[in-house]
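Here is one chain, start to finish.
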Amino acid sequence: MTAVLEARGLGKRYRRRWALQDCTLEIPAGHVTGLVGPNGAGKTTLLSLAVGLLAPTAGTIEVCGGVPAGGAEQLAKVGFVAQDTPTYANLSIEDHLRLGAHLNPRWDRSIAQTRIERLGLDPTQRAGKLSGGQRAQLALTLGLAKRPELLILDEPVASLDPLARREFLQVLMEAVAEHDVSVLLSSHVVSDLERVCDHLVVLVDSEVRVEGEVESLLATHHRLTGPRRETDSLPADQHLVSASHTDRQSTLVVRTEAPILDPAWTVTRLGLEDLVLAYMEVPSADTRRNGDARKPALEVLR
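Its structure:
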């Protein structure tokens, strides 16, 4: 499978602090990939390295077969919408489209015009007069009209209300289907990822905790509830993800492709948010020794 992004031992250091360290990752082309993790996990740093806004301190990263920002041809392959959906307040929508045409050799004017018309936006209106949702849609339009191979979105709907978020994501999915572009989307809101992503990466402390197609991940992860027991008694084909215990009961999240035959367990499937939270939990010293109780990550996803 062709990779649209490959990182090997990737790291970025600011003086003495590592914002990203020893990150190894391979994201396949042809997917809408969700990137999720707590604050400080290195998500924005990873995306900034992917678009060439930052240079790595260690390791390597390759995007669309080349070095990020390695010349005009490479820049044309990647579209980027930052968290603050940057637009120029004093420029009109039409000014933004002309600027996009000037800066991007693969610019597709018809895509931009069609999207602006479909959104019901006035091309003469200044960006500073647009709502937050409209500015996000304008930024997405500029990214798509580049005709990129990969569109990178860094929490583009973080500041939007639920209705604007839904409209943005709906338009994104329509555009992905229409223009056959790979997408890497960072978000803290798992419900947004569940709505649009078919591939998932959970990044915690620069480490890829889990990566794969969403459908496969949900099919192979289970919650086990039953009488309290030590987790070292689990079968070898059941990988322990997280565990919690009361005096009488154990609740485990495991990953396995084999059927769970132990009648003592009540087995339930996980939703995407439960799965993500299980991998975001930070193991205590006891957990590292015997898979016992885990401490929650510094931030939940909502």
